[in-house]
Design brief:
Layout (H helix, E strand, L loop, with lengths): L6 H4 L6 H20 L9 H7 L1 H24 L5 H11 L1 H20 L10
Helix pairs in contact: 2-6, 3-4, 4-5, 4-6, 5-6
Amino acid sequence: MTPPLPAALESYSRPGPERFHLYGVLMLLLVGTAVLGRGRPGDLGTRETLRRSPFARVMFMDVGALSTLGALYLLLNGRTAVRVPGAVASLFAGSFALLPALAYEDWAKMQEKAGTGTEEYRRD
């Protein structure tokens, strides 16, 4: 038997404002890091860092594995027309593509539950 979720996590288990807020914060952090985290004096650069550091290589591979899992999740669980292009794009752009696609899937599900659903939402 699966143990119940802690009360603090329950609101994240289904589409809603809390998950939208999470997607937004994650996207802001991602974009902020990409824009503000540019090279610094003495920075080795990506290729040199990957060449010198086994830890960096493992983390680089981990990001690829997580992007692949996210793409698979979106492809199998998505119900809108965004699921296939979002899954493919996430294999190349990672979270930059996956977060908006997941947010759109949640938005479509919330619209359906509110009775103002989009025509493209595929019912099970």
